[in-house]
Amino acid sequence: MSKYPRIAAFNPDSNNLDKQDIRTMLASYSLTTRRSFALLSLAFAAAGPTIAAPYPERAVTWVVPFAAGGPADALARNIAEKVAEKLGRPIIIDNVGGAGGTIGAAKVARAPKDGYTFLLGHVGQMAAAPSLYKKLPYDPMKDFEPVLRLPDTPLLLLVGVNSPYKTAQQLVAAAKAKPGTINFGNAGIGSTSHLVGALFAQRAGIEVTSVSYKGAAPAMVDVVSGQVDAMFDQSNTALAQVLGGRVRAIVQTGARRLPQFADVPTVAEATIPGFSAVTWYGLYAPEGTPASVRAAMYSAYRKALDEPALRSRLVAQGIQLLPDEEYSADALRKLTADESSRWKGVIGRARIVAE
Known about the structure:
CATH architecture of the largest domain: 3-Layer(aba) Sandwich
Mean pLDDT: 88
CATH superfamily of the largest domain: Bordetella uptake gene, domain 1
CATH class of the largest domain: Alpha Beta
Largest sheet: 6 strands, mixed
Shape: globular
Number of helices: 12
Number of domains: 2
Low-confidence stretches: 1-51
Strand content: 15-25%
Distance between the termini: 87 Å
Number of strands: 11
Radius of gyration: 30 Å
C-alpha cells in the first residue's frame, strides 16, 4: 500500500475529507514533486556533456585579410586543406583585403564568438598596425584569442642580376659612403617589406630612400630593371624570381638559412649580429571564443602539420618550419605582444604613417 493517501475521484465539493486531510495530502504530493524535479535536474546535468553535438557541426571560415593569390592566401589554403581533413568539416577561405589587412581583422573582431570564424593574422595587422594607424577599429591584444602560430616566411634582400652589389656588406658600405643614395623598393607603406627595410637600415646605421609601390610585383619589376637598388621580399614569392635568374638574393632575414638558399647568408651572419625579422602568421579567434573550440582547432592543426607531405610542401615553397613549442597559443600571445613593442620603435624612428 502507498505511504501517501490516494486522491482518486476527489471532489472538492464533497465533505468526505476534512481540511486537515487535504493539507496533509497536498504537502505529501508537493514533497514528491520537488524530489522528482530535483532528480530530473541532476539527470539532465549529468547527461548534458554527452548529448552535446561535437565541434564543428558545419563549415568553419578562416578570414585571410589579403587578396586571393598572394603569399598569405597560399599559405592559408595549403594548411587549411589539411586541417579540414582532421576536423572533418570544410574550412572556407574568405579573402577580405584592404588597409594593410586591418579591414579583415576588424571583421573577425566583430564576428560571433561561436568558433566558426577565425582570422589568419600576421605581423602587419596584429603587431605593426597599432603604431601605423591613428585610429584602429580593433585592439590586437584585447579583441582576439590566440589559437596557434603558423610557420614563418623569412624575407630576402634582392638586387638585380646586373647590380654592382654582390653582398650585403658592399650594399651597406655604399650606403654609408653616400647617405640617401641607395633606394629600397617595397610593397607599400607599412608593408612587411617596408618595415623590414627600415629595421635593416636602422640596425646597419645607414640612410636609404624608401620607394613604395602598390604591391610587391611592380616593385620587383623595378628591381629587375635596375630602377631601384634593392628590395626585401618574402621568400615564398621571391623564390621563383631568384630561381628564374631575374634577381639575386644577397642576404636572408631569418634566424637560419632556408634550404633553397643554402649559399645565401643570414643578416646576422653577414652584417648585423642577432638580427632576425620574418613575416609571421597566427590564427586568432574573436575574444570570448570557448577554450574547447580553440583547443580542437589547435589539435587538428598539429595533426595536419605532423604529416610529412604537408611539411615537405611548405619547405619547398620557401616556408620555414618552427620548433614544436613555438606553434602554441601561449607562444603566439607572447609573440604578438613582443612584436608590437618592437615595431612601435621601428615605425616611430622611421616616421612611417600608413595612408
